[in-house]
Input
Amino acid sequence: MSGPKEYLVISSSLRPSSRSRILAEYLREYYESQQVSCAFLDLRAVNLPLCDGETAYSHPDVARCAKLITDARVIIAAAPVYNFDVCAALKNLIELTGDSWEDKVVGFLCAAGGSSSYMSVMSVANSLMLDFRCLIIPRFVYATRNDFNDEKVPTDEIKGRVARLAQASLATKNAV
Ligand SMILES: Cc1cc2nc3c(=O)[nH]c(=O)nc-3n(C[C@H](O)[C@H](O)[C@H](O)COP(=O)(O)O)c2cc1C
Output
């Protein structure tokens, strides 16, 4: 986990061969190609408790994650689609870090099994807007396994979409 930065990329899949993490890593590379350094929070690298609304908040890894989120202006969350929603690990992070999300610009990179679940991010997007007044970048990247080649490299089409999401996030710099 790197230090706090204006841009934060969160990889929330706990799966070793995650495709959403590949999207998150590509986004980080893209930011670096634009001379934008970003923090990278991989939820596999922290040991977050399940949110119980009480004692879990005092776990040291919750404080580490909350600091990264607080310090960021833009947060791009990469997530697997599970049961027509983002994965529970990302929702748990949001439950644990709540107010840290206040007024952030937020975007999403999603990996899914099929093309039918493309609106799955809306539930968490709505809650971030309503609970924490986040501004949601209306340019979700949504990828299935067909959007990666055999070496798990995203297609040029998906790379282009990640780049456009990054550009949209950079364009909010003076708008927010
Ligand atoms: C518990 C579970 C629920 C899932 N639910 C959906 C779903 O509702 N829609 C869908 O398109 N894919 C679903 N999938 C497939 C995952 O989105 C897909 O495997 C994706 O690549 C996971 O992201 P990751 O590779 O970053 O871990 C589900 C997978 C699991 C394990």
